[in-house]
Automatic annotation (TrEMBL):
Species lineage: Bacteria, Pseudomonadati, Pseudomonadota, Betaproteobacteria, Burkholderiales
A molecular-function term among this protein's GO annotations: alanyl aminopeptidase activity
SUPFAM superfamilies: Leukotriene A4 hydrolase N-terminal domain, Metalloproteases ('zincins'), catalytic domain
Protein name as annotated: Aminopeptidase N
Key words, A-Z: Aminopeptidase, Hydrolase, Metal-binding, Metalloprotease, Protease, Zinc
Family: Belongs to the peptidase M1 family.
Cofactor: Zn(2+)
All copies of domain Peptidase M1 alanyl aminopeptidase C-terminal, residue ranges: 555-881
Species in which this protein is naturally found: Inhella gelatinilytica
Peptidase M1 membrane alanine aminopeptidase domain segment(s): 222-430
Domain Aminopeptidase N-like N-terminal: 20-182
Catalyses which reaction(s): Release of an N-terminal amino acid, Xaa-|-Yaa- from a peptide, amide or arylamide. Xaa is preferably Ala, but may be most amino acids including Pro (slow action). When a terminal hydrophobic residue is followed by a prolyl residue, the two may be released as an intact Xaa-Pro dipeptide
InterPro entries: Aminopeptidase_N-like_N (IPR045357), Aminopeptidase_N-like_N_sf (IPR042097), PepN_Ig-like_sf (IPR038438), Peptidase_M1 (IPR001930), Peptidase_M1_dom (IPR014782), Peptidase_M1_pepN (IPR012779), Peptidase_M1_pepN_C (IPR024601), Peptidase_M1_pepN_C_sf (IPR037144)
EC number, UniProt record: 3.4.11.2
Record GO biological process: proteolysis
Amino acid sequence: APVIHRLDYQAPTYWIATVDLTLDLDPAKTLITSKMAVKRNATQAHGALVLHGEELTPLRVMIDGEPVSFRQDGNLLHIDAPDRDFELVIRNTCCPEKNTALSGLYTSGGGFFTQCEAEGFRRITYFLDRPDVMAVYTVLLRADKAKYPILLSNGNLVEQGDLDGGKHFAKWHDPFPKPSYLFAVVAADLVAREQRVVTRSGKEHLLQVYVRRGDLDKTEHAMNSLIASMIWDEARFKLPLDLERFMIVGVSDFNMGAMENKGLNIFNTSALLCSPATQTDADFQRVEAIVAHEYFHNWTGNRVTCRDWFQLSLKEGLTVFRDREFSMDMAGSPSARAVQRIQQVRNLRTMQFPEDAGTMAHSVRPDSYTEINNFYTATVYEKGAEVVGLYQTLLGREGFAQGMALYFERHDGQAVTCDDFAQAMADANPDSALASRLDAFKRWYSQPGTPQVTARGHYDAAAQTYTLTLTQRNPKAGEGAAPQLIPVRMGLVGAEGHALPLNLAGQASVGALETVLLLEQAEQSFTFTEVSSQPVPSLLRGFSAPVLLDDGLTDAERLTLLRHDADAFNRWEASQRLALRRLLDAVQSGQALELDIGFLDAMRAVLRDPQLDPAFKAEALRLPEAAYIAEQLPVVDPQAIHNAVEAAWDQLALALRDDWAWAFEAHQVEGGYRPTAEDAGRRALANLALALLVRGSAMLADPVWPGKAYQQVKDATNMTERFGALSALVQAHAGLADAALTHFHEQFAHDALVVDKWFMLQARTAERDGKVFERVKKLLQHPDFTLKNPNRARSLLVQFCNLNPGAFHRTDAGGYVLWADQVAALDAINPQVAARLARAMDRWSTLAEPFRSAAQEALKRLSERPTLSNDVREIVTKALE
Ligand code: HT7
Ligand code: ZN
């Protein structure tokens, strides 16, 4: 497959202004008729009209009512088209029931669904399937009425009625020109939760959430989240809903979380359905965030879309930023906001940092790809959102909002680039630090790699000055790469824990307790004056830029920050750095980890601190993830990391045993379930405490806490507590774990999303004596396991191969053999999901022996298979480059 380069972008020879689509829906053979108003683009030289089409059977092509010949060349259809505007009609068929790739039109649970981003529309009909071709769609759906009583497409319903032979039809019209990737169709037996809302402008809208019969009672949280998102976007960015009707549909077979099709969002049921009995607090939070994310795309993505797929972060980074801001506002208190930020950063460090250092490293705006589906990555989404956050840090909330307003004023209805967004931000804030440094700022879009920042301070007691020297380097950005613009939010903490006033030599503002330093050179020094005592620098507050920071602080200084930093994020960061240093020391020395009293006392103090919120405590007491630990090391022995982390948990469990017991009892939530940040925080801490109590009991052969946990698996009134107890037993390899797993499976065998949790837990349990690996192999044969459903495949395989390094990386290479076999098997069914699984080997080249050679061998064997999809081939080829 060819490599596509960003700089090769050319506008098309023809535009398509309108599309009239008729779909006669049949699972085995759907007939599609597409009538298009084609417009000649005079800026390009005349040539053949070349349309995309994949897995389609063409029947006829007509121009202005006359049949014309056409030539098929792989996935392209060449038509000799005239050098003028014309009407093009194409008839073709496709086979939805054989579409296991879940891209284009496919069947799921007896209904029809579509997924067109990024290049799925070409699997429905022949088209200029690229995001800069924006058309107005009118869609006529015809299908069996009994089997498919609900017929939906984008926009407004203009007509519906019955047809002969038990069929019916519905005609939809979407007045907004849109790229083909936002097209959607649903035909299924569904029911809807409905709500009419009136927005600020006084307009009435109909909101609908469609799901299978029986799931209706799980849609309230999604509906509430949708309404909250609408209110928020109008209040924060003055962006209203532009449609009379906004629909969300749930489907069980889906490649990602959800899709923002104009007016007809389609959701993985895992990102939509919520009930206290079957979903956890984390699920409630995820559903709220994804509903908001897709809703926010209506402006950032749909009204203003991407010129080409290299600009993907234009909509994804910006929309993740917006859903993060929304979730923080919904969380409420400053502490709950800080917890949100902590979770974002934990996720960034475990998913995006390794990506940016590995074989799939790419910039936020990539320069090339073979398969665009492989670029829906943590870098495009999460690092992209961090970059959008940098604008807000540089411009302030008001300046950022003005930039957004100018962006929409200039580009509403257009397909544009990341440069257009940056320019709007700068032009709306002409006197800002951004405007004067725009070219340097834009390196965040073009340079891959995580910048490494080093900070060293020098206190001159006689002069009462404190000089902070910051350096940056980014080896992954290439030889001679220019420095990036890094805003470092910071403060100085005095020996007694009080915030020191900041007087920066040469700067007007004096006495503030916090400032943002702009690191824009390879090395820069900042001198603070009138500093009365040796300070502890609190740097990169709120994680003000996506960098790896070496702050050079001592344990004592970190303890000061843990106790006193005014910035909650940096208090958490101090806890993580204290733990990280101990874990790295053990891994690098090859010696067994021994947690010292100082560290354990600090953790106990956090746990017992009456000023701190439970949610914050749960985050501060969690150890850094193995993937983040690995990123600190030039050569990675996954087993050494695994052993160190397991030893640390064991020691935390035993040393703080009374404290965990107190924490468990003191954080029980009374009354009915509420998915509030406050209650969820209490449950998070109680679950962590229970996990450590059961762990400690397993070591002490004490039956009490495992017994309590087992009882909680049986009696809990919500899934957060039930699954917390089950996880505690399974993660501790407690004697009662198997019985609890059996009980849980029997109780929820009818609920696919809960069975996914059951697989997921077993697949990501920390390894002990090869038991997890053996269990995963057995689960592959379980009657409930199937590679055809992406949620199920992910819940076992991605959890094990990509997210459980201690179990996956085995000296006998068993994990790699399983991985290669399953990637190949999955690839024959669903290349997109297979390619995600293939990424388990992204960081193989930093592995220690014998893992490294065995991983390379497995990659080579997989790459030699003749039938790999483009998706998997690109991942494997890049891994071996
Ligand atoms: N914009 C959507 C991306 C998406 C997707 C991409 C590739 C294959 C399947 C997909 N389903 C959804 C989701 C989002 O970011 O909102
Ligand atoms: Zn998105």
